[in-house]
Amino acid sequence: MSLFFDYKVSLADEQPIFSAWSNSEYQPILAVSTRIGKVHLYSEEGESHTKTLMARPSIPNQLMWHPYLPILYCFWEDGVISYWSENDNSVKEEKSVHGCRICGVAICPDGSRMVTGDEHGVVAVWSTSRGLTPICQYNKEGAITHLAYCTLATDSGEIPSTDKMNKFFFFAGSSGSVYLADDQRRCSEVCKVGGQVKSLLFYKEDNSIVIITSTLLMVQFRVSPNEKLVPSKKVKLTVAGNPEKIMTIWGGPGLLATVSGENMIRLWNLERDANYFLTLADTDPTGKILSDKIISIAYNEKKRIIVAGTHEGRVVMWKCKQLLSGEAPANREGWEAQLPVSLSPNPITQVSWSSSEAVVSAISLTSSSVLSETTLKKKVRDGFVALQITNNIVEIRKISKMDQPMQFVSTIRIKGMDISANILSVWNGKTIESFNLTTENISGKFNKQSLKCAVHKESVLVYGKWQLEVCNVQGIVKQTISMPESEGEVTAIDIQGDTMVVTTDTLIKLFDLTRREYKAKGMARKFEDKQGQSHGIIRGSCINVVGNKVALLVDQAPKPNIVFPDSSVFIYDCDIDNFMYHDFGNSQIPVDIAWDTYDQRLLLVETECFAVVSEEDNKVEEQANQAVSLFVNTESGIIKQDAVKIQGEILSIIGLNVPYMFFTGKDVGKDNLSGIGKIIKRTMRDFLGLEQSEESVIKAILNFSFYVSCGNMDEAFKAVKTIQNVSVWENMCTMSVKTRRLDVAEECLRNMRFARGAKAVREAKNETDEESKLAMVALQLNMLEDAKELYSKANRYDLLNSILQASGEWEEALKIAETKDRINLRTSYYTLARYYESIQDFQTAIEYYERSETYRVEVPRMLYSNMKTAELERYVNQKRDSELFRWWAQLLESKADIAGAIRCYTDAEDFGSVIRVYINQGEIEKAMNLCKEKDSKVGWYLLGQYFERQNEVRDAMQLYAKSQRFHHAARLAQENKLDGELMSLVLRSGSIKLMLKSAKYFEEKHFLDRAVVLYHKGKNLKKALDLCFASHNYDYLKTLVDDLSEEEDPATLLKTADYFIAEGMHDKAVHLLVSAKQFAKALEMSLAHNVKIDENIIEKIIPEDNSNDPKKKEMIRSVAKLCKRQGSFQIACKIFTKLGEKLKAFKCLIRLGDVEKIKQYANTAKTAQIYVLAANFMQNTDWHNNADIMKSIIFFYTKAKAWDSLANFFDTCATVEIDEYRDYEKALVAEKEALKYVSKISPANENLAQRLQKRLNHLDMFVTARKSATTKPEDMVKICEKLLETPNIDNSIRIGDVYAQLIEYFYSKENYQQAYQLLSKMRSKGIILNPYLDQEIIDTIYAKVGVKSNSADDDMDEPID
């Protein structure tokens, strides 16, 4: 735990103006300038460092330290620059450039260049390598108030060289012009904005410059490698404060933080393009500072803390929760507000951070203060609890007398503390002060340079330069223990009992303190495994009460400059010389450790939980810090015992002494909201209610807890078997619920003799999940919070909702119902409404009755039963709900307010009730008119009743019919023997019940025709058929038969079928025989009389099961043949397929002629014969114009291995190419394919092979001839002549094409005589010329040889075969 304590800087009567911290990380120095022209130096505790450093007859305007060197620069109102170096302790001045107030200063990252700007527009670039030397200067208009160095990254992302980083800078001011310049006298105006520039910041992550103006315009420019600005964003800011006093800084990577005299800090996340704000209300739980205004701001990049100064003299802080993430928070949930500190009655004009640690300086109009973050020192040891509560006060309480605190006030600022049974020692790195715990007085004080000390009995151990000195309280050295430099710097010293552990970065050393001279126990142990691999860097350690185990806090350093805390706590077991560790996960880091001073096994670890940012919505998932207790045992290792959330008033752990844990808290003071420390005692979970038990009981419970944590139940029960105290068993039962051990809870309940609890355990075993079972036990033990948590984990939100309602937590119950248990939402609303009704809060009850949608019944009941009639009437009129109007109308009617009842019935649109009232009042005409107007069925019915009472039967029947109450109308018709009206009414009604009842009535009166019709309409077909035969009503029988089904009586169906057979209506007879399951007879009749059967009949005839009965199969085969004969090929195909006769089925499918179905069936059947049939069929289709069919033919022949058929198919392809397209090239390819498949035929088909080979040779010769026509015409002529001389050449190619080839050649050579001779040969062979030669060529040849052309003969078509 840490608090900020303030130290006043001694300035006498001087008024501070400005302050700046040096960049030293070891001992930073604070420089403060005052209005009388002086500059002073102070330590981080506010103590004066030297005498007055600088003094001039001017006002120091700004202070700045060199980034690396101990050099301070002071900028004065008259333009003089003074600088002081700690190395030579001298002050020098530079006054050659500026002659007026210097308004802006910037220094480059490595400190080699500095740039200044004054109110006259002079900008100077300085070299700081040797003193302060001007390099160049620029003169511009207006005051130069803001300057910023920048880096110009290349397009490839390369890191700029050092000279490039120090070369370029931006400057701007009151004129609104922004300039980019360097130290080579190059300067250019890159942009001009409206108003004055109030902020100029370089955004190094984005390589851009951010400008904020007095007109609240924020402009972001991307700095490009060509040194020209590229605008990337322009936003108008919303600020309610004073724009002239706006101050902007970086609050993290890409996060702008702005203050302007409001009660908030406005933040803009440039990377996420989001904005939010942090208000003073976040930091103030008392509400005292809500009216205060923030006027100054600073950010600590290392600690990631924003600090702000207010107008009323307060300092407020916000700490970033995302310490492990390098990103800036995207919303306000990523910041944790700290309590404010009051420093001055005057405004805090400036705040600034020290570079070494969390130290803040604050400047007001009259004072300067240093706020230092102090980690409160604490210890539990030798029966005492000690806690530093302020920067110089330690409070000590005896564990046995916690209500009697002792406070020890030190004269030094405490930076370390330790305690023994006799003395308390505190130190600050320079002085050690000791107090006697018995007399409560100072027992000694001496000076020693050390921050690592410890106390044993009445001795003080002080770590100095590579040695550990054992001193008495006056500082007299009794013993010196060497700590060689080679072992490293000591990181921690801890003493418990008579054993001391001293750790360095990499070593653990144990010492025996039982003797007069302290001796080392064994050799120093390196912090590494057996293979020599380091476990990390030790940053803290403590030893247990018997001195055999050391707990270690560890850092990891994967690279020299990167150090981060390890998520594990390590244990060094001295007995086995080995290390153990317990990992707390990625989001938790152990920050403090303490062994129990009672039991050697118990270790308390404080973990700090870092916020995790959700990737989905960028929200911070917060987790509380925890105090985790661990059992450490050589045999069992490290086992988690319990975890307590560190929240609320608890801030951090102090230590452990069974049965108590001790924590630090905070008491908020009246004048200082930052507060002071306090000790908080909490009983451990396992000992609640047993704090005053005997030591043997406490030991037994501790052992029980240890064995339960180990899972060793036998030893656990053995440890507590002698305990007879019921409260102890009850406490252990409670512990078993918390540790999720139902079996232990059952045993504890048995020993408690708690029958109800035991019953709860038995009933809980019926639940499916362990959490629900434990929750039921927790309820019996009144552990409501645990039961809620368990039901929540089990997702049993219904039971959780019930618990919350039963305990009166209605707000939480409704939240659960609305989000997790919506199935019981309306029930929850109703239950809450009943609760409010019980406490007479009727208005709220009405609200929840409405939400539960039960208000139509419950609200009238509630208000009427509580005599709230007026309120009820107002509610009814307000809601305008029909149900409520009807309820109110019934109430009025019961009170004889007829007019009011009619009005409310009308508002409810309950016109039936209005008509009823009219009838009761004797206003029949009004009732009749309203019925006609609204066509109210209820009204017609009521009027029908009225006319029936008046014995006006026909009118009553008519009204009953209008109201659709046909039963009443039919009753009246039967009673009054109005049979004609009865038939009409019954048919109009559509009621089967009424039809059958009326049919029976007509049957009894021997009106059989009417009875048949009504029995038919009433679905009683058997009765209708019987009456048809009885009354010889065969005409209606023909109509009735269409509705007969196989559910009817078979005898009736056969009787009807016989009638239709006799009448020659065989199709109807077949359907009836099938319905009667006389399949053979039906099939016989179908065959005899050629009755076409459809799929419905077939589905009934053919059984679903694959019966092997030969008779049934033969019958099914007959059906298939019948379907085939009738042309129902698809049905026949299905039946044959079902019989397994795929070939017959496929032949039926071929008869159907559907190519796609044939292809599908062939692919399914997968038999060679079907493949061949399919391919043969497809050859009869238009396969040469459909590539898919052609592929299927080839595929099917291939699958069937019908190589001869496939070869003939390709031969046919070649013929088609020749005859249809004269494409001999494709024909040649097809013929080659044919010959290829012939070779696969087994046994070989020599005749087919020879025929195809002969044709292939002829095709090849002719294709060669055609190709030689242009290149070697002589070869072409020879080949063609040879082909013409070949016998039976027509079997291979068309001879007409050969003649045509020669004629066209001689025609092209104008050898008409030769061409004519070939024409004559074609004619002599009976070859028609036109299919082979153009008519123009024929006419030209005839003309050239002087022969008359016979066109008629040439045009003659070829004869058709």
From TrEMBL:
<feature type="domain" description="IFT140 second beta-propeller">
    <location>
        <begin position="384"/>
        <end position="588"/>
    </location>
</feature>
<dbReference type="InterPro" id="IPR011990">
    <property type="entry name" value="TPR-like_helical_dom_sf"/>
</dbReference>
<keyword id="KW-0677">Repeat</keyword>
<keyword id="KW-0802">TPR repeat</keyword>
<dbReference type="InterPro" id="IPR056155">
    <property type="entry name" value="Beta-prop_IFT140_2nd"/>
</dbReference>
<keyword id="KW-0966">Cell projection</keyword>
<dbReference type="InterPro" id="IPR015943">
    <property type="entry name" value="WD40/YVTN_repeat-like_dom_sf"/>
</dbReference>
<dbReference type="GO" id="GO:0035721">
    <property type="term" value="P:intraciliary retrograde transport"/>
</dbReference>
<dbReference type="InterPro" id="IPR016024">
    <property type="entry name" value="ARM-type_fold"/>
</dbReference>
<dbReference type="GO" id="GO:0005930">
    <property type="term" value="C:axoneme"/>
</dbReference>
<dbReference type="InterPro" id="IPR056168">
    <property type="entry name" value="TPR_IF140/IFT172/WDR19"/>
</dbReference>
<dbReference type="Pfam" id="PF24762">
    <property type="entry name" value="TPR_IF140-IFT172"/>
</dbReference>
<dbReference type="InterPro" id="IPR056156">
    <property type="entry name" value="TPR_IF140_C"/>
</dbReference>
<keyword id="KW-0969">Cilium</keyword>
<feature type="domain" description="IF140/IFT172/WDR19 TPR">
    <location>
        <begin position="711"/>
        <end position="1196"/>
    </location>
</feature>
<feature type="domain" description="IFT140 first beta-propeller">
    <location>
        <begin position="3"/>
        <end position="147"/>
    </location>
</feature>
<keyword id="KW-0853">WD repeat</keyword>
<dbReference type="Pfam" id="PF23383">
    <property type="entry name" value="Beta-prop_IFT140_1st"/>
</dbReference>
<dbReference type="Pfam" id="PF24760">
    <property type="entry name" value="TPR_IF140_C"/>
</dbReference>
<dbReference type="GO" id="GO:0030991">
    <property type="term" value="C:intraciliary transport particle A"/>
</dbReference>
<dbReference type="Pfam" id="PF23385">
    <property type="entry name" value="Beta-prop_IFT140_2nd"/>
</dbReference>
<protein>
    <submittedName>
        <fullName>Uncharacterized protein</fullName>
    </submittedName>
</protein>
<feature type="domain" description="IF140 C-terminal TPR">
    <location>
        <begin position="1204"/>
        <end position="1323"/>
    </location>
</feature>
<dbReference type="GO" id="GO:0036064">
    <property type="term" value="C:ciliary basal body"/>
</dbReference>
<dbReference type="InterPro" id="IPR036322">
    <property type="entry name" value="WD40_repeat_dom_sf"/>
</dbReference>
<dbReference type="InterPro" id="IPR001680">
    <property type="entry name" value="WD40_rpt"/>
</dbReference>
<feature type="domain" description="IFT140 first beta-propeller">
    <location>
        <begin position="165"/>
        <end position="373"/>
    </location>
</feature>
<dbReference type="InterPro" id="IPR056154">
    <property type="entry name" value="Beta-prop_IFT140_1st"/>
</dbReference>
